[in-house]
Amino acid sequence: MKLPRQFFQPLAIGAPAPMRDLPVRLERMIHFVPPHMEKMRAKVPELAKTVDVVLGNLEDAIPVEAKEAARKGFIEMGQTVDFGPTGLWTRINALNSPWALDDVTEIVAAIGNKLDVIMLPKVDGPWDIHYLDQLLAQLEARHKISKPILIHAILETAQGVNNVEAIATASPRMHGMSLGPADLAASRAMKTTRVGGGHPEYKVLADAAGDAPRAAFQQDLWHYTTAKMVDACAAAGIKPFYGPFGDFSDAAACESQFRNSFLLGCVGAWTLHPSQIAIAKKVYAPDLAEVAFARKIVDSMPDGAGAVMIDGKMQDDATWKQAKVLIDLAKLVAAKDPDMGQRYGF
Ligand code: GLV
Ligand code: MG
Q1: Which of 246, 266, 284 represents a domain boundary (last residue)?
Q2: Residues 41 and 61 in one domain
Q3: Closest residue (by CA) to atom 1 of ligand 1?
Q4: Residue 182 CA: which ligand 1 atom is closest?
Q5: Residue whose CB lies within 8 A of the most ligand 1 atoms, among 60, 91, 179, for a mutation test
Q6: Which carries the bigger pLDDT value, residue 204 or residue 338?
Q7: Within a 13 Å sphere around the CA of 36, how many CA atoms are in the beta-carbon half?
Q8: Residue 314: in which H helix or E strand, if any?
């Protein structure tokens, strides 16, 4: 076991000290860009103004023959675009692939001071995080990187789900985690062919009552894993995200999947198509009426202790804390989006 005293020591001489707290940033959507496509790269300067995070994808969905071009394209994007307050992330190839090592070494060498987060796919256990953690520290020292590059794990293997708590606490470099429903479905041998979302056959049937037709209620295939991931992340002080929703033609189902994750504790989701950006903005911001009610709670219990009744509902220390979560998030949204700030009444 690593001693607590050593947890926050840099892993290489000359590497920046690990962060003790995550930067406070709004990350409602992680927008995926295929960086080998010049046409898509050309849109990034404008895109960066409309999303919270731009991610250059190097892994799945990038053809094998375009892997090097995607890496180069991402580096060019990082060197030429001013991202302002928008996060710059990349999803590198899996650690057992022929590209992962060059992804990390070339990207950190070229744009390590601009890169905020590396998303690591197919994380099976803390050993994957430890490897990347050490490698990043060596590269940060070599290239004089001033702030630590964070790691975001994709939870998309059955083994990863088994080890989710150890992954969440593997390093102070951990930023958060995303549910990867497509690879996870394959890893678990689920009988689906979708990227996220429900399945019409995963349902509960109401009890039979004579010959009357029986109602069926579709269930959420991702509830268990999302909740498990949220607990692991919240306990470790890192951020949980829902991942991709592949049916771009079904905005309503995408919104519902995003919202379930938000209500359970996730802070954002991936957007793979421009139409999903507006959905993420709508979902991962607290509801206006909820924020108004949360402000009533905080106003009537300024020190957060005791109990009061508001509109017939009991409020105490625990609801005060829930209200704080909503108000703090609403303030972050308001700072980025003045229109929302007005609607919240800040
Ligand atoms: C994402 O990478 C997924 O597999 O769902
Ligand atoms: Mg995947």
Answers
A1: 284
A2: yes
A3: 180
A4: 5
A5: 60
A6: 204
A7: 15
A8: strand 313-315
294 Cα–ligand 1 center, Å: 35
Task: Quote the domain boundaries for residue 338.
Answer: 290-344
Burial of 33 (0-12, 13-18, 19+ CB in 10 A): buried
Determine what percent of the chain is predicted with pLDDT higher than 70.
Answer: 100
The tokens for 199 are 């399945």
3-state percent helix, strand, coil for the chain, nearest multiple of 5: 45, 15, 40
C-alpha of residue 115 to centroid of ligand 1, in Å: 22
- Expressed in angstroms and rounded, the spacing between residue 157 Cα and the centre of ligand 1 is 10
Same domain, 189 and 338: no
Residues 27 and 148 in one domain: yes
Structure tokens at 27: 């990350």
Average pLDDT (270-282) is 97
* Judgement on whether residues 243 and 308 belong to the same structural domain of the protein: no
Residues with CB under 6 A from ligand 1: 60, 154, 156, 180-183, 195, 243-244
Q: Are residues 209 and 300 in the same domain?
A: no
What is the distance in A from the centroid of ligand 1 to the CA of 4? 33
Residues 181 and 65 in one domain: yes
Q: Are residues 215 and 294 in the same domain?
A: no
Mean pLDDT of 194-208: 94
Of 60, 173, 156, 168, nearest to 115 by C-alpha is 173
Cβ 297 vs Cβ 323: under 8 Å: yes
Distance from the alpha carbon of residue 61 to the mean position of ligand 2, in angstroms: 9
pLDDT for 1 beyond 90:
no
Least confident of 113-122, 164-173, 294-303: 294-303
- Average pLDDT estimate for 259-270: 97
The number of distinct structural domains making up the chain is 2
